[in-house]
Amino acid sequence: MRRAIFPGSFDPLTLGHHDIIMRGITLFDELIIAVGVNADKKYMFTLEQRLEFITQEFKNEPKIKILTYEGLTVDFCEKVHAGFILRGLRNPADFEFEKAIAHTNRKLSDIETVFLLTSSGKSFISSSIVRDVIRNGGNYSILVPDTVRLQ
Predict the structure, then answer these.
(1) Choosing from 90, 109, 119, 131, which is the catalytic residue?
(2) Band of the pLDDT at 78, cuts 50, 70, 90?
(3) d(CA 77, CA 79)
């Protein structure tokens, strides 16, 4: 079975994440959306909210599993028997950052990183931009799936 993880904080889930996930499930038998938990990071949304956004968005996708993890991503991959890490690339800066992580992961394990370019219409979207728009009362609904829209 070709199992991959798509790690991130998903604070919040964006249309860019959604794009990579939907394209990623065509490549793998199972895709685990791995929500990272970092005690040192301050999140806008609670872990429960982030899990709910993701669970509701992908509830009809049988190839998707949603799990949380702490620690090294490669250790989590080994724990869930995933041979691949899926990552999205928006721009050259993402590539340089992700390349360094992928090389480090290959030194630590046999896990292979697979990169997908974000679709052009979504390449400008990041969780930090979405959080800034939300904090400042802007219309963030065009940047996130329906399940993320606040009441």
Answers:
(1) 90
(2) very high
(3) 5
